[in-house]
């Protein structure tokens, strides 16, 4: 049988290969789909890959700039390195919203399952990744909790093979980045480093980003054993600019540039170490085991809350991932695995000064500590799957059972009092602390997929899967008002997907249609209680394609049409939102890159990125009009080793909002997009 695979997103060089070998198969390897290297086109799922060549061309200052090229993704930037994610979903926000999309680096979750952070991708080294893989739809049968809408896996380069790179980016509004990649290959072993330093003074007043990231990798080969180890360290020092308020205030350049929260900041460090041992056994069997540890801490000034408290959180943990791949015969492969993790986490929220504002806020938001707790979390998860190849048919089936337990210790007085135990006015303090307790959650997540190889280059597929996420520690133990306990169940998502992908003449394409229903959605209701009775429906069509035109011109397209709607009966401001569009869920998103390979080693690209209008509140009474942004890029291969690149973002100087929102307290509020800005890059490789 001839194996083949579709790169859903191709850089120009690959598009030329597709043109020259239009009838040949193109192979792309994925590790996200199965934890081991596999050709993706025959698999019954939707996965997009951003290649190293693309990432180098884009030179993203933020991972959102790269993920614009993935159909179904809609990452909205906040300020600095902050963002809110969306993947086959509305833009996710709230205490546990980060549990909707699982983020990985080299196959290991950036955060422990119960302690995600909505901005956690800034702890991956996406700026210098080898590739970024995006698995769309529930991935819980393999990855467990949090892989509800999909998985984003940042894969760092294998620097142990030798060679290197030295690069610099310099752009508008005080942006600068230095990049270094170097390694040494000793034959059966190797060692290498991948590092970047970013300094960005920012477009808005009193904002800045200082960020350093480094990956170190070591490789050792002995007979049938490959031992690979890695370390990642990141440090972020960010002065943050908050929302601007007022209807369409982002169109006023003076307001858009202002920072009304000049004291806001985020300081975060992360350290991860891992080691993977892979044994090639008899009969093509494979045994893979990865052990890892995490240590993370963050100080975060909550400028958007009354009293502007300071949050300090940290987590330290160890874990193991294991996989045994056994070939029963030439057509049937069995995968067995066991994952485990132990995490110690702590959370402190305190307020140094008295609250300013109304008499109600002054009385109910006290100075002093609001929360102070520790949580020890234990997770274990066995899983199994089988792949059965029958002529042109491939059948995959799998199931994962996961058990998570939290051991929560409250280090303050339980209830909604002040730190010293005295009562707040107006019925009690805003923040409520549960008594020390234990909570546990168990869930099984099955999947079933089938694909049919129509011919050597085209595949039909279908899959049915269940995603879930356990309640996050923040949802269980950071309560408000009269709520003393949160009786929550895991969120559940049932998904069905159909698609076709492959190569036809000069088209590389992937088309998928999905339908998902979510139940037990966790949210904070109008009484400020964390509850579990939300539900929603998600329907969408996604198309990714690359088309090679004459005269060395190629077109890459990624487009989504989707509807995300509430299906639960919830009355807000006298209106039942059942059937309404979920807020911050544009129905149409599209991205087009047109690339022209000129002579004399020069390449030009024109990008058009469109975000359709969307409602900014659940009642669907307020909305954002959407936007389209036009950008240009150029690359010049000056010598064999030296490459120079330039780009202009927002060529037409469009006034737009990266994120639009509406609350009853502030009205319309926005994170403004940058005006026209430029960057020039140079890199020397060897």
UniProtKB/TrEMBL annotation:
Major localization listed first in the record, in broad terms: membrane
Pfam families found in the cross-reference section: Plug (PF07715), TonB_dep_Rec_b-barrel (PF00593)
Keywords: Cell outer membrane, Ion transport, Iron, Iron transport, Membrane, Receptor, TonB box, Transmembrane, Transmembrane beta strand, Transport
Gene3D superfamilies attached to this UniProt entry: TonB-dependent receptor, beta-barrel domain (2.40.170.20), TonB-dependent receptor, plug domain (2.170.130.10)
Entry-linked InterPro entries: Beta-barrel_TonB (IPR000531), Beta-barrel_TonB_sf (IPR036942), Plug_dom (IPR012910), Plug_dom_sf (IPR037066), TonB-dep_rcpt-like (IPR039426)
Membrane topology: Multi-pass membrane protein
Domain named TonB-dependent receptor plug: residues: 42-151
SUPFAM superfamilies named among the record's database cross-references: Porins
Domain TonB-dependent receptor-like beta-barrel: 208-651
Subcellular location: Cell outer membrane
Entries under CDD domains matching the protein: ligand_gated_channel
Family to which the UniProt record says this protein belongs: Belongs to the TonB-dependent receptor family.
Protein name (Swiss-Prot/TrEMBL): TonB-dependent receptor
């Amino acid at each position: 049988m001839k194996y083949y695979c579709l790169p859903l997103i191709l850089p120009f060089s690959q598009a030329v290969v597709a043109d020259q070998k239009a009838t040949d198969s193109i192979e792309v390897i994925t590790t996200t789909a199965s934890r081991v290297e596999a050709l993706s086109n025959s698999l019954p799922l939707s996965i997009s890959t951003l290649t190293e060549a693309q990432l180098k061309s884009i030179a993203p200052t933020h991972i959102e700039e790269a993920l614009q090229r993935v159909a179904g993704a809609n990452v909205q930037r906040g300020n600095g390195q902050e963002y809110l994610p969306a993947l086959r979903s509305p833009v996710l926000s709230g205490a546990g919203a980060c549990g909707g999309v699982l983020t990985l680096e080299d196959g290991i979750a950036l955060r422990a399952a119960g302690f995600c952070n909505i901005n956690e991708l800034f702890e991956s080294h996406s700026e210098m990744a080898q590739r970024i893989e995006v698995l769309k739809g529930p991935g819980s049968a393999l990855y467990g909790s949090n892989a509800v809408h999909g998985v984003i896996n940042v894969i760092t380069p294998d620097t142990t093979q030798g060679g290197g790179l030295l690069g610099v980016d310099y752009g508008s509004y005080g942006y600068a980045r230095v990049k270094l990649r170097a390694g040494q290959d000793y034959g059966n072993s190797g060692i290498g480093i991948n590092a970047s330093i970013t300094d960005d003074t920012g477009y808005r007043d009193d904002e800045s980003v200082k960020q350093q990231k480094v990956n170190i990798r070591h490789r050792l080969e002995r007979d049938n054993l490959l031992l690979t180890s890695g370390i990642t360290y990141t440090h972020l020092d960010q002065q943050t600019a908050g929302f601007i308020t007022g209807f369409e205030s982002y169109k006023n350049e003076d307001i858009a540039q202002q920072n009304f929260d000049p004291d806001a900041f985020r300081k975060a460090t992360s350290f991860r170490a891992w080691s993977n041992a892979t044994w090639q056994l008899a009969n093509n069997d494979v045994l893979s085991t990865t052990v890892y540890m995490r240590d993370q801490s963050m100080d975060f000034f909550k400028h958007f809350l009354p009293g502007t408290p300071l949050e300090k959180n940290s987590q330290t943990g160890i874990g193991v991932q294991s996989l045994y791949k056994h070939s029963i015969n030439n057509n049937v492969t069995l995968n067995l695995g066991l994952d485990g993790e132990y995490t110690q986490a702590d959370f402190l929220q305190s307020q140094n000064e008295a609250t300013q504002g109304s008499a109600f806020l002054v009385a109910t938001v006290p100075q002093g500590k609001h929360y102070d707790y520790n949580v020890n979390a234990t997770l274990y998860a066995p899983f199994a799957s089988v792949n059965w190849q029958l002529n042109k048919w491939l059948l995959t089936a799998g199931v994962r059972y996961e058990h998570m337990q939290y051991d929560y210790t409250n280090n303050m007085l339980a209830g909604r009092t002040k730190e010293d135990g005295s009562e707040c006015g107006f019925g009690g303090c805003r923040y409520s602390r549960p008594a020390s307790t234990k909570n546990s959650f168990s869930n099984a997540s099955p999947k079933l997929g089938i694909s049919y190889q129509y011919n050597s280059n085209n595949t039909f597929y279908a899959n049915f899967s269940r995603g879930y996420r356990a309640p996050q520690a923040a949802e269980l133990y950071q309560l408000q008002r009269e709520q003393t306990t949160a009786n929550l169940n895991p969120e559940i998502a049932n998904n069905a997907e159909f698609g076709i992908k492959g190569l036809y003449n000069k088209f590389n394409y992937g088309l998928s249609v999905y339908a998902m229903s979510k139940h037990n959605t966790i949210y904070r209701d109008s009484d400020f209680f964390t509850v579990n009775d939300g539900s929603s429906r998600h329907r969408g069509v996604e198309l990714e394609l690359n088309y090679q035109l004459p005269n060395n011109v190629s077109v890459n397209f990624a487009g989504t049409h989707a509807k995300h709607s509430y299906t639960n009966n919830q009355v807000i401001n006298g209106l039942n939102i059942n059937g309404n569009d979920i807020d911050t869920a544009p129905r149409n998103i599209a991205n087009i890159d047109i690339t022209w390979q000129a002579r004399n080693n020069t390449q030009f690209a024109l990008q058009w990125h469109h975000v359709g209008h969307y409602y900014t509140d659940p009642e669907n009474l307020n909305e954002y009009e959407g936007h389209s942004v036009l950008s240009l890029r150029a690359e010049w291969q000056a010598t064999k080793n030296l490459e120079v690149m330039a780009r202009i973002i927002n060529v037409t100087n469009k006034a737009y909002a990266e994120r639009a929102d509406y609350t009853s307290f502030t009205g319309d509020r926005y994170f403004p997009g940058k005006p026209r800005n430029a960057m020039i890059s140079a890199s020397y490789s060897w």
